[in-house]
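task queued by scheduler; priority normal; single chain, no ligands, no partner chains; default sampling; output format set to structure tokens
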Amino acid sequence: MNEKNITELPINSSIEEAQDYLLINEPTVNLYPTLAVALGINEALILAKLDSLLETSSVSKEGHIWCKHTYHQWHTHFPFRCKKTIERAIRKLEKHGYIISITTFENGLMDKTKWYRIDYDKMQQLA
């Protein structure tokens, strides 16, 4: 177990250096309390992750940034949730218009990958 004290971490440290000070050396999961109260914990987790995925995506279609993910890929971000729970949360977010998803970017009828984006205008209604 790592016994470094977080107070010893220099302010201008890199992410790699900061990894040595984490409780467990693995990616963290963001949760926004306001979204969790308004939409549910699972939905808030998915929205926070999608927001971070969109920040690093370079795919722009129809004037929006998109990222693609399968339900299996979503599950790798949230292994503490079952796949069906993740699917239900995504469908709920789609139904209420918080996320927009399409499957038409890829060629091939057997491709089950969906492309996602957040409707940030709709999200502003929660604030």
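post-processing summary
- The chain has one domain: 29-124.
- Residues 55 and 65 are 8 Å apart (CA to CA).
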